[in-house]
């Protein structure tokens, strides 16, 4: 228990608590709200230049060439295909894909110089469509794996745009694709 | 005005959150680490513990009070995640902020002076422990998606929390013990607990604004 030399008086406690509350409020409204939430009720955020901290940077410059790609991938039941992009660290792309039937998918990436077979998975679910943006956390090969888990032939329509340098089919087990290469472009033995 | 991403008292962020989301199966090592990191970097939990042990001179009392706090937050962490109990993160973080205010107010004898009551400090620590655990449970559930290995992962996280708590407390107890040997401790004890209240009000205020804006 508190063992202060002289216990504070009732008025001292009340004043201290009030001052504590006011100090917290001043810091909250004067500095934290402008800096963290971009709200500036007292105008101090503008005065101290804190507002910029609370605002998301709407623009991000990218290097490399802008390109747009569209692919239609046909899969019979139980067939699968990978579709890959070469992205440098920090480069991004916008994607939208739509499957005419149920698929499991997995977005994964393999950094340059990684041992064969190494991949980091970022998103894996069973869905029929996906839309979003992807910013590469490292330079390497990044892309999707789709597998037809339904009972009908399906078509996956994929459209991407962004700052990648290549877009191509990777490994697959599907009747409709002829040239078998792995994700780094090396030939792979055909899978029945 | 465009609001930036909401801030929690100390969220799991970036790659940590991504990892927890992708976990499917028991991963004791990472969850142990995350639990410890959550405690060591969690200034709301730390401020509360500073308040709790501020006037505890005997190691026996430190152990007793910290055990009560641990019992409280372990109970709600385990049963919160297992039972899927999840409270709005802003509300629970605001309560945790207010628990810091409570402790500072108690330390300056506020309850005796203002309300003429003497709260049971042990019960209070246990009850606030329950709230802190609910906060941990809520944050863990925001990210955990897989039921696979859930119990092992919560237990690992909980053990990590205790390890982090011991690490943080060792530092706090050492500093306080040193400070207690100086005359300035009694002179500034009152001021230190006032500052604790400022911190608590601040944490609670941030979360209340977050609740209004983002919930």
Attribute tags:
heterodimer, A: 192 residues, alpha+beta, Jelly Rolls, 2 domains, 7-stranded antiparallel beta sheet, 7 strands, 41% strand, B: mainly alpha, 9 helices, 78% helix
Short description:
Chain A has 192 residues and is α+β, with helices and mostly antiparallel strands. Chain A has helices at residues 10-37, 44-48, 51-54, and strands spanning 67-75, 80-87, 92-111, 120-135, 140-148, 154-162, 166-173. The N and C termini of chain A lie far apart (77 Å).
Describe the sheet with the most strands of chain B.
Answer: none
Beta-strand percentage of chain A? 35-45%
Helical percent range of chain A? 10-25%
CATH class of the largest domain in chain A: Mainly Beta
- Determine the oligomeric state from the structure: heterodimer
Total domain modules of chain A: 2
The number of strands of chain A is 7
H/E topology pattern of chain A = HHHEEEEEEE
Description:
The complex is a heterodimer of chains A (192) and B (215). By secondary structure, chain A is of the alpha+beta class. Chain A has helices at residues 10-37, 44-48, 51-54; strands spanning 67-75, 80-87, 92-111, 120-135, 140-148, 154-162, 166-173. In chain A, 28% of the residues are buried. Chain B is mainly α and 215 residues long. Chain B has one domain (27-214). Chain B contains nine helices and no strands. In chain B, helix 3 (43-53) runs antiparallel to helix 9, helix 4 (59-82) packs parallel to helix 7 and helix 4 (59-82) runs antiparallel to helix 8. In chain B, 44% of the residues are buried.
